[in-house]
What we know:
Layout (H helix, E strand, L loop, with lengths): L18 E5 L4 H12 L5 E4 L10 H4 L9 E4 L2 E3 L2 H9 L13 H16 L1 H11 L3 H4 L3 H10 L6 H14 L3 H22 L12 H16 L7 H11 L2 H4 L6 H17 L4 H5 L3
Parallel strand pairs: 1-2
Antiparallel strand pairs: 1-3, 3-4
Amino acid sequence: MILADDQVTTDEVKSWKGIHLLHFQGSSCSQKVRTLLHEKNLEYESHPIDISANEHVSTWFLGINPRGVVPVLVHDGKVHIESNDILEYLDQLPSDAPSFFPQNDEERQAVRDWLKLEDDLHMDLRNMTTGFMLPRKLVAKSEETLKRYEQEGATDPKRAKEVEWWRNFAENGVTEDAALASIKAYRAAFETVDAKLAESDWLLGDRRSVMDIAWFISANRLRLAGYPLEDHPNLLKWYEKLKEDDAYSGETSMGFVPEKIIIPIYQAYLSTKGATIKQLLEKL
């Protein structure tokens, strides 16, 4: 999706030349785009947006993407939003790497189905991330931030729903019922992925595709959250093979401190409450 010029009020980006990516290290959608950029050998200028410091709801950023979410691609002054649309756009740019998108009608239908399944789990991925990886106080947005986010995005039909979710999270966190529903949804999806990978090395058959990128991001995020990928042996083998590639392991890293210190400490705390993903799986 390309924004019209009158939707972009931060005028400086209209003069940017080449490929620019506004992104956040821990954002799953940002990770998808960075991985494809790596795979396609496309050079770009990186513009980190610190979500933890609420830079995504600054006037400057909202003037680029009124929805206040990353990633955002700016190519020769044109602003592209929505991660799956960005992936498709990047795949069409000149590159010495093969296409990661479908080449015939059968592949196109497969990609649509797999990406829709992955996209439909977006809120479940958020529940898993905010519920099992980091303490609520490190993730929750202040009421002041939410009010500004709400006011500056009043014309965005998705904004009210986002604000409502974050207000509820700040008050209640991810409830056990919501966590169980998301775990159940991902378990069913991973069983489908595992069955497909029993037939072929990659989700599109004999070559890597955008489907592998998207599902690797989800699998990696859930692994960090404590989901037992070993319950799905074909998926685990595929995951470990991709994990050896810098395009995947490097672009999906959350950083040393979150992965080696904060997340393990928080999950040890959840374990004392009987509230890790493994412990909750016993209730399903």
